[in-house]
Amino acid sequence: MAPITTPRFAEKRELILDGAARLFNQRGIKAGTLAEVAASVGLATNSLTYYHRRKEDLVAACLMRSIAAVNQVVAQADLAPSLADRVSGFVDGFIAQLAAIARGQAPELIHFADMRALPEPQAAPVFAAYTDMFRGVRQLLRDDPDGGRPEVAPERIARNARAHLLLNLVVWSRAWLGRYEPDDYAGAARRLTDLLLHGLAAPGQTWPAPDDPLLQALAADAVVSAAGSGDALRDAYLRAATRLVNQRGVGGASVEDIAATLALTKGSFYHHHDTKEALIADCFARTFGLIRAVQAAAQATPGNGWQRLLRATVPLVRLQLSAQGPLLRITAWHALPEAMRWRAFGTMNRLAERVAALVVDGMVDGSVRVLDPGIAAQQVSGLVNALAEIEAWVPGITDRNVSDLLARPLLLGLLAPASPGGA
After folding, report:
1. DSSP for 248-297?
2. What pLDDT score does 134 carry?
3. What pLDDT is recorded for position 74?
4. Which domains does the chain have, with CATH numbers?
């Protein structure tokens, strides 16, 4: 029988969801337990099961509450008359929620990072709700005005890609807003909106052709440089594990599944890695190695700041869908033990500082607009994270058009015309 809902019951349920979201954000969905959630809100475990019988039910309830919070912001933003105002409203509303959470004035929202690890039957309604949320964000990017004409396939693909990018970059703000005081979140939101709408390029800068030989060479050289003298089997293992984690989340990618993709035994896994956490750490090391190699090569090329920024970004986007990809979703760090998580977080921020330096170089030579280099660099990190699920949200995307569909709106802005060859 379903429990009788009373004001006291509803209040306690919200307290549980708040405590659970905080715990799962800190410990990861897989590691956090019902007993820990119960203890965090002063309940016995059997009392908590009166509200949520299984941990999966509690995780699903937390995710549905986060989706509802985003939907509330999207619905308010959708009332604005122009695309620019709708994007601004979405960014301002979401970051205002985060400011309220930081001040203790609103309940914690669970991250979407490991949502794909949720099993059935809980997964189906959560994914349906998330898909509806994505459609709402996509609607914010409608043309002004569209004249009522039907959307053709290339336009639909391009808008799907931009919606996926917008949603991921706005949600990604949770990874870097902790550098600011809550009172300064609104200013960060304005600078983020400016970047999203107008990109980084100063007037007169151009976008590279899809077959630009230098960008192709940088991607190929990065693979060679990052691989070093490592063995091919280990690299194949890491690529297979990365792909499964991106598709299913850390909790949903089992050791057996990873080994099976390479027709190997479970024992061969433990020959290379003592634990799955160690494997994820090595997947991070491989991804960071690729990013580091692309950045180093880009920094060594001639040209202005904008050109070198392109060379530090576009090859990574193309690598994601190539035979040498993919890159690991950065938010997979939520499932790592705390010490490993902070090492991955620290490495990501150091690599972001390299991007910030390229942005500053571009502002100095006039090829990049005057903007916040720290937030701009974090957007490139958010782009890498968004790549992990791009195939699920943008059917038809390939290694040849992914940079036009995803990197172009990031670097030139959502208001820039779509590439005629992007879809």
Report:
1. HHHHH--HHHHHHHTT--HHHHHHH-SSHHHHHHHHHHHHHHHHHHHHHH
2. 97
3. 98
4. 7-198 (1.10.357.10), 213-370+381-397 (1.10.357.10)
